[in-house]
From TrEMBL:
Protein name, UniProt field: Polygalacturonase
Keyword terms, alphabetized: Glycosidase, Hydrolase
Similarity comment text for this entry: Belongs to the glycosyl hydrolase 28 family.
Domain of life: Eukaryota
Length: 310
């Protein structure tokens, strides 16, 4: 059971004068590392089937698992929170809106051992059967660091993710700056995702959109349930000390379409030289991108996938 748990609630406020909720997660992390856990690890905060939620002005520290997990919720505001965990702590995601709608995450600092913010919507055949997407989500003015992703969509996206706006993000010492991730067996549609005004520094990979990420809950998933990724715009991104600018790899039977990269500059760790982009099974456009991305993103002017990004 999560430390703070609620199901079927209406009008929830969790707030304080930056007081700390300490999950004392190292006990759980050590059991996970040793393989001695008999149960799943709890979140610090998990609210289910609830609406009209405000979480603000609290420090969340050392969660055993994900920190804040609204699932099947609507009208959620998470602002002015600080979330902390060691960089080697397993699965300590910061904020994971899951099959939830009308969510705003803003003005927060997150430094953990896993994705800072990850939008999710269910896992393989179970998420497909439930069929509830995450939609209408705004993430803005978030700063942080992580050995994994700064801003992520996925990898559990079987209910679909749509209408996500991410803006004014600052990332430092991060594995992947922007990561959209799914897999065969997931199904679901990832659609209308916009990320803009992102600064990243000392990052292993700037942008990654991938169709081969994440494991499966069991062997009952349908390998023919292919995800759809379309209409993703990433613009106004600046990076320093970025080892590789990015990779975009769709699925052979489900190429990613409508990918727009616009006004992006990702400088390498030792000056302007970067490892090259890697792409496959993707189509879209690129405008003012440095280093120049893959040939699959062929546009050099304001047309096609990038026509609405200016």
């Amino acid at each position: 059971m999560s430390f703070i748990h609620g199901d079927g609630l209406d009008d929830v406020i969790i707030t304080g004068e930056n007081g700390t909720i300490d999950g004392q997660g190292d006990v759980w992390w050590n059991m996970w590392r040793l393989g001695t856990l008999q149960f799943t690890r709890p979140n610090l905060v998990e609210l289910m089937n609830s609406r009209r939620i405000i979480i603000s002005n609290v420090i969340f520290k050392d969660s055993p698992f994900w920190n804040i997990h609204p699932v099947y919720c609507s009208n959620v505001v998470i602002r002015n929170v600080t979330i902390l965990a060691p960089s080697d702590s397993p699965n300590t995601d910061g904020i994971d809106p899951d099959s939830s709608s009308y969510v705003c995450i803003e003005d927060s600092y997150i430094s953990t051992g896993d994705d800072l913010v990850a939008v999710k919507s269910g896992w393989d055949e179970y998420g497909i059967a439930y069929g509830r997407p995450s939609s209408d989500i705004t993430i803005r003015r978030v700063t942080g660091s992580s050995p994994f992703a700064g801003i992520a969509v996925g990898s559990e996206t079987s209910g679909g993710v749509e209408n996500v706006l991410v803006e004014n993000i600052n990332l430092y010492n991060t594995g992947i700056g922007i990561h959209l991730k799914t897999n065969m067996g997931r199904g679901g549609v990832i659609n209308n995702i916009t990320l803009s005004d992102v600064y990243m520094e000392n990052v292993r990979k700037g942008i990654k959109i991938a169709g081969d990420v994440g494991d499966h809950p069991d062997g009952k998933f349908n390998p023919n349930a292919l995800p759809v990724v379309k209409d993703v715009t990433i613009k106004n991104v600046w990076g320093e000390k970025v080892l590789q600018p990015g990779s975009i790899r769709g699925l052979r039977n489900a190429p990613f379409t409508g990918i727009c990269l616009s006004n992006i500059s990702l400088n390498g760790a030792n000056g302007p030289r970067n490892l090259p982009w890697q792409c496959s099974d993707v189509s879209g456009a690129a405008v003012q991108v440095s280093p120049w991305p893959c040939s699959e993103l062929t546009s050099t002017h304001q047309t096609g996938a990038c026509s609405s990004s200016f």
